[in-house]
């Protein structure tokens, strides 16, 4: 909370580590604070948390570009540049804030979903940036597509054609935990994809695709087993997950380990943002 700027941004844009991408940290901070505000028992501190969240949510809305997305910097500071991964963090942050009782205009969420819709190519994959072309052009990113499904679910899009298109793209392009294949952003990818499969449970996929064969069904119980088996196999002696990980080398093992710990606790349904 002490890192919030007068304009509502949570972060220190003047720092070397945040200066060129402060919206990432802001989005995650909003989601974190929104998830814990209901657990705060001190009335004065709780009121402070709510005030911080209200200012932060307003900043998020003001930072949105005229295409409906978000970029590494605010629309003003970033010359209206936007891209998928930051858009997703802001949308989940706003959804968590709404869950915590903060007023979030429907227009902001709708514009974000429309941004992801327009970023979807003909194959069903979400492209890196709408600024670089939409309407079927550009390569779809499996990780961004998995994250887009999370945002669609959060916005109430559980059965639409867009979600179905994204799901099929992910099934065709994502690795299964433990199958021996590695992607450059495995931890980031499965942080979001696991949320998707958890929400689907063991019967929702069949309802979306009634004609799917048994070996095509995407179920939480099957995904959970393969993921947990891989976690036990790949965990380092110090408790982290860092071996053979591009993300651990570039970002650090704490981020990777946090992603895995989040996935392993989805069944606890402790936080509203992750609940079915």
Determine the N-to-C terminus distance: 29 Å
Give the rounded overall mean pLDDT: 91
Assign the CATH class of the largest domain.
Mainly Alpha
Globally, the shape reads globular
Order of secondary-structure elements: HHHHHHHHHHH
Q: Tell me about the largest β-sheet.
A: none
Q: What structural class do the secondary elements suggest?
A: mainly alpha
Radius of gyration, in angstroms, nearest whole number:
18 Å
Estimate what percentage of residues fall within beta strands: under 5%
CATH topology of the largest domain: Glycosyltransferase
**In DSSP terms, counting alpha (H) and pi (I) runs of 4 or more, how many helices?**
11
Q: How many structurally independent domains?
A: 2
Give the % helix: 40-55%
Low-confidence sequence ranges: none
Explain this structure to me?
The protein is an all-alpha fold. The protein folds into two domains: 1-158, Glycosyltransferase; 174-276, no CATH class. Helices cover 52% and strands 0% of the residues. It is globular. The mean pLDDT is 91.
